[in-house]
C-alpha cells in the first residue's frame, strides 16, 4: 500500500480548482459576446489548469495528473490556434473533453478508494463530466448560451469539488503525520 502523503493533493491542485471556478464565471457572464472569445477564454483556462496539473504531477509523482494536465494543455492549444474552426466545433470539442476527463477521474477515484483516500469527490467530478459531455453531444445545436451555461456550471462545480478534495486530503495528511 502506498503512503498517503504521496497522493495528497498539493497546493497546485487548489490553484487548479480556483482557476476552474474563475473560468466558469467568465464563461457564464459572457454568453453573447462571441463564440471566438469563448473559445479563446476556455483555451487559456485549459492551458493554465493543465500547467498546474503538470506541476502537481511532478511534485506528487501521480500519473493521472500528468495525463489530465497534458490533455488540458493540448485541448487549450487546439482551441486557441484555430479560433474560427473551434467556434464552429466548440460543442463537440468540449463534450469530448468532459467525457475524457470524466473517465480519467472515475478511474482515478478507484485508485484513491484502494488506498483509503476520499475518492467519492473525484468519482462525482467524473460522473458530472460524463453527464455534461453526453448532454452536449446529444444537443449540439442548443446554442452558445446553453453551452456556456453548461460548461460554466461544470467548470465551477469541478473547481469547487477540486478544492473540497484538496481540503479533505490535507486533513487526512495532518492526521497521518
Descriptive notes:
By secondary structure, this protein is mostly helical. It has one domain (8-176). It is 85% helix and 0% strand. 41% of the residues are buried.
Give the SSE map.
Blueprint: H1 4-7, H2 11-28, H3 35-60, H4 63-81, H5 83-114, H6 120-138, H7 144-176
What structural keywords apply?
7 helices; single chain; 85% helix; 177 residues; mainly alpha
Query: What is the average per-residue confidence, as pLDDT, rounded to a whole number?
Result: 80
Low-confidence stretches: none
Shape: globular
* Beta-strand percentage range: under 5%
Q: Cα-atom Rg, whole angstroms?
A: 16 Å
First and last CA, distance: 16 Å
Work out the helix count: 7
Instruction: Estimate percent helicity.
Output: over 70%
**Most strands sheet:** none
Task: Give the gist of this structure.
The chain is built from seven helices and no strands.
